[in-house]
Amino acid sequence: MRTHERAAGVVMVVYRGCHTAKVDEDGRVYGEIGDGEDTTAQLEADRKWFKISRGQQGVLLAVVYVADGTVVRVREVKDGRWEWDENGEKAALPLSAPLTADELRERFPTLPFTLGDARHMIRGKIREYISL
Questions:
Q1: How far is CA 27 from CA 21, 22, 34, 83, in A?
Q2: pTM of the prediction?
Q3: How far apart are CA 60 and CA 5, in angstroms?
Q4: Using CB atoms within 10 A as the burial measure, which of 24, 26, 34, 93 is most buried?
């Protein structure tokens, strides 16, 4: 990661389809589960398990969820313990409740989009990082 990105922080944009909940081999549900964004089940699906470097701790400020080409929610990465899988390669993030449009503008004024905006996925890309 470049030095100026470390100074300002980054957000991770995760691309999904609506109502595409899946279950991995460990029984973890992930994706858009369709129960509403404020549910405990959606929070758990949103926070686990991202293949991410340990160097992102303190740099990753939020996760943006895009479903079917629309920004559906943004969760702030809270201060707290990141949980790591047994291989130390994937993290479960300490995330906030979804931010409102006003909270999003206040906390991340340089983010180039907001809730409800179109953000189309590039074929083959399931996530990307945007520097603030």
A1: 12, 9, 18, 17
A2: 0.85
A3: 10
A4: 93
